[in-house]
Design a protein that fits this description.
There is one protein chain. With 412 residues, this protein is α+β, with helices and mostly antiparallel strands. The chain has helices at residues 7-24, 28-35, 45-56, 74-84, 90-93, 100-110, 113-124, 247-254, 257-283, 295-325, 331-356, 367-380, 384-411, and strands spanning 129-133, 150-154, 157-168, 175-183, 195-201, 207-212, 225-236, 285-286, 289-290. α10 packs antiparallel against α11.
């Protein structure tokens, strides 16, 4: 395996980094002022302005895989995604933000030509936004077979009833389409064939946003994480994705690239937290010497560097395997980075907060919000426990296979 960045990627890295330096970092205060002001549930004018600049610079839809009309592999996109991830809202500027990238890839992979044209086209243009409605308040949604929302066929329509929550992005007035997961065949003997996914336009009668759910006190406006009631929601049967009973299959397929992007972005968050930690430690004096001279601070800086680089190599390895042998074969590597990256980011950001003292838990340095985001991803992309269980089962299977092969070799 060779993780050297190609000349094409090196050039794109320079362009994305230069764009961030010129247009994003200097205006973070402007974004913050909007999302904490009276108009926070309206689109941020700054982002709309920067979208035009990003498109003009050729830095648009970089996430889009080669398999679906893009120009980059997962391995090539990873370092670019890391740079964007250094600022939580920056990926949207490049039309590379969640949940839209995962939803667009789902549509490109599983949608009909008509569905792609109607919904994925505007998403690729950055004209609308989307949400993914799977998690429910009354069941353990880490096990997707628990989903209780019912999707019943009535003539040429589906009628949907249920309640979803943590529907990220649904608070944005530009959010025009939901991908909803529910059960079309709850009595099917196969628990993995009961679910389907359907497309529900945001303005459909019966769709009601009940409330926004803050994360550690952050409402993440205008994106938001909403609790949504679906009561007698009627959509055409043609809005089903892939077909009845294929919802679990789609959910598994969606857990590849769209979710590893979070890990790439988290590395950028951790890198920026480490930079802030080093800067603060050299500027502050405690007990007669700079904080950077304290042994515990140096140990944490060293550990942070080791952990970040380790996470980066795991991400690159997972991306490389996805490109070379496919998402299914790479599922262990994907699961490993989904556990490791959020935990690394949480720890590094926590250490950075500690060096900043009281300032670390304020909004002045962006660390508290970064921590809230990283901590959420320890279950938003599937709980650590689920991924660890999956990793362990695969490892046990591989070790058993090796042992059996050795026995056969010896017996010969």
């Amino acid at each position: 395996m060779n993780f050297d960045y190609t000349p094409k990627v090196q050039d794109l890295r320079k362009k994305v980094a230069a764009f961030m330096d010129e247009h994003v970092y200097p205006r973070e205060h402007e974004w913050h002022a909007h999302v904490t002001g009276e108009q926070r549930w309206q689109p941020v004018p700054l982002i709309e302005e920067l979208k035009l600049k990003a498109r003009t610079a050729g830095l648009w839809n970089l996430w889009r895989p080669k398999s679906h009309g893009g120009t980059l592999t997962n391995l090539e996109y990873a370092p670019l995604c890391e740079i964007m991830g250094r600022v939580t809202w920056a990926p949207e500027v490049f039309n590379c933000s969640a949940p839209d990238t995962g939803n667009m890839e789902t549509l490109l992979k599983y949608g009909t030509p008509e569905q792609v044209k109607e919904w994925c086209g505007p998403l690729l243009e950055g004209k609308i936004r989307s949400a993914f409605l799977m998690t429910e308040p009354n069941v353990a949604s880490s096990d997707a077979t628990n989903i209780q929302t019912l999707i019943k066929r009535q003539g040429n329509d589906y009628v949907i009833n249920g309640t979803k929550w943590w529907s990220s992005g649904a608070g944005d007035p530009r959010c025009k389409i939901y991908i909803v997961m529910g059960k079309t065949d709850p009595d099917n003997t196969s628990r993995h064939s009961q679910q389907s996914m359907v497309l529900v336009p945001a303005g459909t009668p019966g769709v009601k946003i009940l409330r926004h759910l803050p994360v550690f006190g952050y409402d993440d406006a205008p994106h938001g994480h909403m609790e949504i009631e679906l009561k007698g929601v009627r959509v055409p049967a043609s809005n089903v994705l892939l077909g009845e009973g294929r919802g679990f299959e789609i959910a598994q397929g969606r857990l590849g690239p769209g979710r590893i992007h979070h890990c790439m972005r988290l590395i950028g968050q951790a890198e920026r937290a480490l930079e802030k930690m080093c800067k603060r430690a050299t500027e502050r004096v405690a007990f007669g010497r700079p904080v950077s001279d304290q042994g515990v601070t140096r140990e944490r800086i060293a550990e942070a560097r080791i952990m970040i680089d380790g996470a980066r190599f795991l991400v690159l390895n997972a991306a490389w395997k996805m490109d070379t042998v496919g998402n299914k074969v790479a599922k262990k590597e994907i699961a490993m980075i989904k556990v490791f990256a959020p935990n690394v980011a949480c720890q590094v950001i926590d250490w950075a907060m500690q060096v900043h003292g009281g300032g670390g838990v304020s909004d002045d340095f962006g660390l508290a919000h970064a921590y809230a985001h990283a901590r959420t991803l320890r279950f938003a992309d599937g709980p650590d426990e689920v991924h660890r269980n999956q990793i362990a089962k695969m490892e046990l299977g591989e070790q058993t296979s090796v042992a059996e092969s050795l026995k056969k070799t010896v017996s010969r």
